[in-house]
Amino acid sequence: MDGIGASADNSARSTSGRLTNKAKVTAKKRGLQLKNHLRLVTATSLFDGHDAAINVMRRMIQATGAEVIHLGHNRSVEEITAAAIDEDVQGIAISSYQGGHIEFFEYMIDLLKDRGAGHIKVFGGGGGVIVPEEVRALHKYGVARIYTPEDGQAMGLTGMIEDLVKRADFDLSKKLPKTLAKLKKCDRGALARIITGMEAGTLSRVMRRDLATLAEAKGTIPVVGITGTGGAGKSSLTDEFVRRFRTDQPDMKIAILAVDPSRRKSGGALLGDRIRMNAIDKFAGHGSVFLRSLATRGSGSELAACLPGAITACKAAGYDLVLIETSGIGQGDAAIVPFVDVVIYAMTPEYGAASQLEKIDMLDFADLVVINKFDRRGAKDAFRDVRKQYQRNHELFVTPVEEMPVFGTIASKFNDDGVTALYHNILLSLADRGLARWASALPENPSRTSSRLDFIVPSDRIQYLADIAREVRDYHEETTSRSSAARERQQLLASHDLLASNGAPKSHLMRMDRMAAERVEAIGEEDLKLLATWPKTKATYEGEEFVTKVRGKEIRSSLTSTTICGTAIPKVALPRYEDEGELLRWMRSENLPGHFPYTAGVFPFRREGEDPTRMFAGEGDPFRTNKRFKFVSKESAAKRLSTAFDSVTLYGNDPDLRPDIYGKVGNSGVSIATLDDMKVLYDGFDLCLPSTSVSMTINGPAPTILAMFVNTAIDQQLDSFETDKGRKPTEKEAAKLRTWVHENVRGTVQADILKEDQGQNTCLFSTEFSLKVMGDIQEYFIENNVRNFYSVSISGYHIAEAGANPISQLAFTLANGFTYVESYLARGMKIDDFAPNLSFFFSTGMDPEYTVLGRVARRIWAVTMRERYGAKERSQKLKYHTQTSGRSLHAQEFAFNDIRTTLQALVASYDNTNSLHTNAYDEAITTPSKESVRRAMAIQMIIGKEWGLAKNENPNQGSFIIEELTDLVEEAVLQEFERISDRGGVLGAMETGYQRGKIQDESLYYETLKHDGRYPIIGVNTFINPEPPLEKTTLELARSSEREKKSQLRRLAAFHKRNAKSAPAMLERLKEAARNEKNVFAVLVDAVRVCSLGQITNALFEVGGQYRRNM
Asked: Closest by alpha carbon to 758, among 924, 999, 1049, 1018?
């Protein structure tokens, strides 16, 4: 019955759980020899670089021959321990982060012990943020090993992985339950261990017999199987089935057995189904979901040899429904059919010619056929052809083709009605077979396909990035042609004058005039005007002041600064070209700051008295961060406040006593849960002053946080009115004040969902819903004339932090920006209504390409906006914020980090970034201290006030290497655009994991070069301190205090109590807006007055869906 006994000849392992000789030889070549079937759970408690790192780790662990259940980023202790117990693993490997990691690891150890799984070994790492005394404390508490940067130096990456694997390599298959007593109580650990025994072939015949008897006594328990091609979306479909079953039957108990293939060479396996599952927890009712991932282990098919026995065990444990998901299959595979009651075959529209359908065995056996990813090109043709083929295979010629059980679904889309139609037919199939009769309250969909095929980017514009690459290159070709014509025209006119003065024949002169006129036409009217006005332009820069007008305001800028030697340094240095061809080439490719294509900068001059310096803060509760803001901004008239939020806030949660949340409250960022908190955070700063701007580094819950900020700015002005007038404003006066606030508030919020997926950052909601709400924010901004606040900061910083090199960072970020443009245009917005509200956020670093990052970005954006979209001047100007690299902050010799940061800040300053944040040197190990923040600020102040050449605002122009690098990097970016375009644009590439895979590859390449020394890093892998600090040295760590954490909990409870009557109705109004495609952000602006961040997040999960993680 259990099918155990696969031939060892077909596998790297025998069914006893021991390695075969063949596998031992392979392992020996690697220098590592596993003794047992090793299973590990890998995950990260946070995001970006940690997710990239753990992905690298899990690949290396797989290569040793282990089976890895990868959970991805932002996993709670509950999720990780539940997975470890269900999967019956030997170990858990976690990448954690500063603040909360002590509580995180200790809570995991406690939870494992409480659930009888204390044998599972816990491994961790987090760079230098877990300091030596904390490492020792965690080891003492029960963590098997915390790996540190020093371990990396001593052991290397491979050495650390091998150490982890050896420590976790012990046999579980012999420690089996002696009776079925626990299983009868549906004990998950007992069920998991019994399945392990079946996998290894160590479960006794008596126990197998007793299991079969117990399963039979449970009565009829249906088994539904889903099989199909690799990448067809089987896991997503399974997750959507479970969500619908549990919505209709909240007390249902479901078991899922998901099979993935083992690698023949190593014996290892990536068990990647659990990461896709959102519906296995967080549901009302008493139901539960047990998920066990199985590897094929050389079974010779898409199934694990132990599958029949595992099904029996799940039935014996009392589950109401068993779902089986196979690994990807080929055309001739149908091994699942004998083991299930209802079988579903999943495929995609890309199966080739219609004749290929005749070769697919499963079309003979499938009860239901699903064409998933129905939004892809050719889906409707596929739907027609598959229905006809099914009709032919089953000889149902008298049955209308419309009644064939073929469905079109988009499982990646939340609440897809195509999936719902398939779900209804699963229920119908079970009822027809007399297996189960479960009712459903979900709406029927007689069309059997997804009705919503609205595309974020319309299908006729899917080649937008390839078009942009072509248009930018065309622009440069035109530049070459026109500059050549200008040069020839100048030469012809000069030759004409020279020959005329020497009495040349009139016919010769007329011919030269005709030739010059032909060149005039080739140059074009616009560029002729540029050449004609150049002398006047040049003269305006030779006076004492330069006068410009911005939105009707006159701005005067002095044109020189004088050194202590008396030298007059021009703010903008002009080229000395006399050749008009060279001059025109320069004006079309470079030009002066503030002039198209804005290569040198989007403004003619920096604003007087306002450096690009950002004042960064975020720690503890809002009171502490407010105090820090006042400290870092006291020396500056301009208050440019950059806010970091703790990971509780970043993931849309409220503070809670649960240890893995409580430990993170106020660590590595400020804790913000309510409008009350937001008001405290910015207390004392007039948010509507032109000299005040606020940047909020938040992503997933950005709409909610932005709604809190809008209310804070409005309430400031209402309170100010009441203080000044001694009375509350009338309704009309209040409305006028709200309008004025919308028009004057300045700042930006990150909110960039595309980089969230690519960089594995703080993804909360489904991609589709997140993009919808981003568009809602922009529409709200247009309707309320919000012109000085950026609706999104399109971030390359987090892509770089996840491991991307500078070219990939720039290419992915600009591509994301153009995706928003296409998306907003598709919603009916006008380019000049929204483009000025888009901003960018880049990382700088040590690589040479960073020197020209801003120049390339500005030029590509400006040319595309004008040439492709017909946008006006304001929309052509790309504004961006820069932050120095977090990846170049090293825990070893961290005092050297300031040197790296200084160089990076200088590069960004020379490139005319619009604002700049310098990282503190100690951020490699802790939240920045007051002293390190002051030093980070000093770096910018020294550059701005002491560094002489910084008085000039276009120092990069005229440099041969800068121009060469600009062209090289731009072409590399355009080539990346074409690669993304080949994959269906940004969204199509995201679906295949292209960006994430490239980021991880580049991250691993960098780490490899760093580890083998080919990429020298001073104090890390070369010039290492001969007298390192003692390990027992106690470092000052900036952590939130117990008082602050408890204060946040009390403030949250008070807010909930005060709004207990109003909140439920408001949350229902919010959900209704989302269901009916209304502007969600407009309702959020009202909702945050009575609902906390966590309440709003959970409400939106119900209507917008959770983000579905993937590899």
From this structure: 999
Instruction: Please say whether the beta carbons of 705 and 674 come within 8 A.
Output: no
Query: For the chain, how many residues are written?
Result: 1111
Burial of 217 (0-12, 13-18, 19+ CB in 10 A): exposed
With a pLDDT cut of 90, the percent of the chain lying above it is 76
Each residue's pLDDT tens digit, 1044-1098: 999 999 999 999 999 999 999 999 999 999 999 999 999 999 999 999 999 999 9
Q: Yes or no: say if 634 and 1055 are a contact pair by the CB < 8 Å rule.
A: no
Cβ neighbours, 10 Å, residue 556 = 11
Instruction: Show the beta-strand stretches assigned E in 698-825.
Output: 747-749, 789-790, 792-795
The 8-class DSSP code of residue 10 comes to: G
Reply yes or no on whether the pLDDT at 140 is more than 60.
yes
Model pLDDT, residue 97? 65
Q: What pLDDT is attached to residue 73?
A: 83
3-state secondary structure of 342: strand
Question: In this predicted model, what pLDDT tens digit does every residue of 67-78 receive, in sequence order?
Answer: 999 998 888 999
Q: Span 467-478, mean pLDDT?
A: 98
Confirm if 612 and 914 have CB atoms less than 8 A apart. Answer: yes
Flag whether pLDDT at 1029 surpasses 80.
no
Cβ-defined contacts of 1073-1077 (< 8 Å, 24+)? 1074/769, 1074/1100, 1074/1103, 1074/1104, 1075/1103
DSSP 786: -
Beta strands (DSSP E) in 71-141 are: 91-95, 121-125
Asked whether 886 and 844 are in contact (CB, 8 A), the reply is no
* Alpha-carbon Rg for the chain in angstroms: 32
Q: Name the 3-class secondary structure at 794.
A: strand
Angle at 250 between CA 186 and CA 323, to 5 degrees: 60
Is the model's pLDDT at 718 over the cut of 90?
yes
The DSSP line for 37-85 is --EEEEEESS-THHHHHHHHHHHHHHHTT-EEEE--SS--HHHHHHHHH
User: Distance between CA 190 and CA 86 in Å, rounded?
Assistant: 9
Side-chain half-sphere of 1083: how many Cα atoms within 13 Å?
21
Angle, vertex CA 1080, rays to CA 1077 and CA 1081, nearest 5: 150
Question: Cα separation of 688 and 787, whole Å?
Answer: 12
Q: Which of 737, 728, 886 is nearest to 802 (CA)?
A: 886
Q: Are 902 and 944 in contact (CB under 8 A)?
A: no
Give the residue from 947, 953, 857 showing the smallest Cα distance to 902: 947
Q: What is the 3-state secondary structure (H, E, C) of 270-309?
A: EECCHHHCCCCCCCCCCCEEEEEEEECCCCCCCCCCCHHH
Cα dihedral 87, 93, 97, 99 sign:
positive
d(CA 204, CA 803): 49
Residue 707, Cβ neighbours under 10 Å: how many? 26
Q: Give the residue-averaged pLDDT of 328-342.
A: 93
CB contact at 8 A, 795 and 883: no
Asked if omega into 505 is within 30° of 0 (cis), the reply is no
Provide DSSP, 406-463: EEE--TTSTT-HHHHHHHHHHHHHHHHTTS------SPP-TT-B-S----SS-GGGTT
Residue pair 16/44 in contact (Cβ under 8 Å)? The answer is no
Helix, strand, or coil here: 758?
helix
DSSP symbols for 805-863: -HHHHHHHHHHHHHHHHHHHHHTT--HHHHGGGEEEEEE--SSGGGGGHHHHHHHHHHH
Q: Which amino acid would we find at residue 866?
A: R
Of the chain, the percentage scoring pLDDT greater than 70 comes to: 94
Instruction: Decide: pTM greater than 0.85.
Output: yes
The CA angle 533-538-542, to the nearest 5 degrees, is: 145
Instruction: Please report, for residues 163, 450, 481, 596, the alpha-carbon distance to residue 527 in angstroms, rounded to integers and kept in the order given.
Output: 66, 52, 12, 12
